[in-house]
Design goal:
This protein has about 120 residues and is an all-alpha fold. It is about 75% helix and about 0% strand. The longest helix is centred in the middle third of the chain and has 26 residues, at about 35-60.
């Protein structure tokens, strides 16, 4: 089987995720963000990546799939970083336009909430 061309959106999402991780790490180290924020992003990202991997395997095996709203909910809760890496590495959910639009909206919403909660209205 020929290898599918990688969607530029998934590469963009990975660059955004790497930049975001760097910013969160720096802000955590210098004390602007609490360590719990980084921990929550880590846990939700690992969970998101795992969910994408399970969904990809289920799709291959024609088994019951993980609902798209569940994938988006985990992204919204902070797991979008893991979801971005999963989409890119697993080549999963990168071709569905509506899914990608909603995914990018979850990224924007999560970053906006982080900025508001911890930078505009500090804890």
């Amino acid at each position: 089987m020929a290898r599918q061309k990688q969607a530029p959106r998934s590469i963009l999402a990975c660059y955004i995720a790497m930049s975001y991780l760097a910013i969160v790490a720096i802000l955590t180290v210098i004390g602007v963000l609490p360590w719990m924020v980084a921990a929550i992003h880590g846990v939700t990202s690992l969970a998101s990546y795992g969910m994408y991997a399970l969904d990809k395997q289920a799709a291959k095996n024609r088994e019951r799939r993980i609902a798209e709203y569940s994938l988006h909910l985990w992204s919204l809760l902070g797991g979008w970083v893991g979801a971005a890496f999963a989409q890119h590495q697993l080549r999963h959910k990168t071709q569905k336009e509506e899914f990608q639009l909603t995914f990018y909206l979850t990224i924007i919403a999560n970053i906006a909430a982080m900025v508001y909660l911890f930078l505009i209205e500090p804890y």
